Amino acid sequence: MAATTIFQRGAVTVSDYRCEAGPGDRPYAEQHRCHSISYVRKGSFGCNTRGHAYDLVSGSIMVGYPGDEYVCTHDHHVCGDECLSFFLAPELVEAVGGRADLWQAGCIPPLPDLMVFGELAQATASGGSDLGLDEIGYGFATRFVATVTGHSNNRRPASGRDRRRAIETAVWIDAHSDQPIDLEQAAATADLSPFHFLRVFADVLGVTPHQYLVRSRLRHAARLLADDARTITDIAYDVGFGDLSNFVRTFRRAAGVSPRGFRQASKGDRKILQERLTAH
Q1: What sign results for the dihedral spanned by CA atoms 130, 180, 173, 176?
Q2: pLDDT bucket at 279, cuts 50 / 70 / 90
Q3: What is the 3-state secondary structure (H, E, C) of the chain?
Q4: What is the pTM for the complete model shown?
C-alpha cells in the first residue's frame, strides 16, 4: 500500500492511496484513527468491518470511524485499487451534524451525488479545479451526511452582519492574495468558524474563498502581463502562485490563452485577438 499525503491543513488532511494487493495476499486488521471518507476512484476491494462484509468498486465510499477495526480483502478482486481519502477533525464532523451511527456505516455504494463530488475532489487534487482541498473536504462531509440521512441542511439567508463579514474578508483576501491563505486563516479574519464562513462567503459572493483567491491572483497577473516588463516566471511567483506550471495551466483555463499569448495580445497581436474573438 502506497500512501501519499497531498494536503494537510486545519481540519482536513487528504491522502492518495494506491494498493497493489491481490487474491494471493494475506489480509490484516487495521484501525481508523479518525473520521474519514475515502472515495474509490479506480479498481475494487473488499472490506470487513463491524461484523459486515462489503465489496467496493469505483465510485464507492469507505467511511471511517475513530477506533473501528477493518480488514481489506482481495479474494474476488483483480489486483489494484486507488482511493482519495479525506481525514476529518472532530470539530468539522460536529459542524456538519453527523451522528455517530452515520459515520459507522462502513461503506456506501456508488451514489450519483457522492460520485460527482468524488470526481470533483479528484479534479481538485490533480490541479484541474480552482477550488481548495480544504473546501472540498468540508463540502464532501456535508454532502455525505445529507445523502445518508436524506435531508439537506436548510440554509437561512445570510444576516447583514455576515454579509458585511464576507465582503470585508473578500477585500482582505484580494489585498493579501500574493501570500498563502487557507480557509482557516480567512475564517479567522471574519471571526467565524471555517464551516460557517465557507457557507456564508459562497452564498454572498457566489464563489468559494479559494476560488476568489485564485481569481484575484489571476487578475493581478493579467494586469502585470499587460503593463509590466517582469518575466512570466517572476509574475507567477509575485502574485502568489507557488509553481510556474500551475500558474500557466490555471491562467490558460481561465483566459483561454497562455500567459505569453495574453501578453502578446495586450501588445496588439491582432492574430491572437482575432482567434479569441472567433473561438467557439
Answers
A1: negative
A2: low
A3: CEEEEEEEECCEEEEEEEECCCCCCCCCEEECCCEEEEEEEEECEEEEECCEEEEECCCCEEEECCCCEEEEECCCCCCCEEEEEEEECHHHHHHHCCCHHHHCCCEECCCHHHHHHHHHHHHHHCCCCCCCHHHHHHHHHHHHHHHHHCCCCCCCCCCHHHHHHHHHHHHHHHHCCCCCCCHHHHHHHHCCCHHHHHHHHHHHHCCCHHHHHHHHHHHHHHHHHHHCCCCHHHHHHHCCCCCHHHHHHHHHHHHCCCHHHHHHHHCCCHHHHHHHHHCC
A4: 0.83
How far is Cα 159 from Cα 165, in angstroms, rounded to an integer?
Answer: 10
Cell of 178: 500574493
Residue whose entry in the numeric block shows the C-alpha cell 479528484? 122
Tens of pLDDT, residues 202-229: 999 989 999 999 999 999 999 999 988 8
Q: How many Cβ atoms from other residues are within 10 Å of residue 60's Cβ?
A: 24
Q: Which residue has the cell 454572498?
A: 204
Contact 143, 113 (CB under 8 A): yes
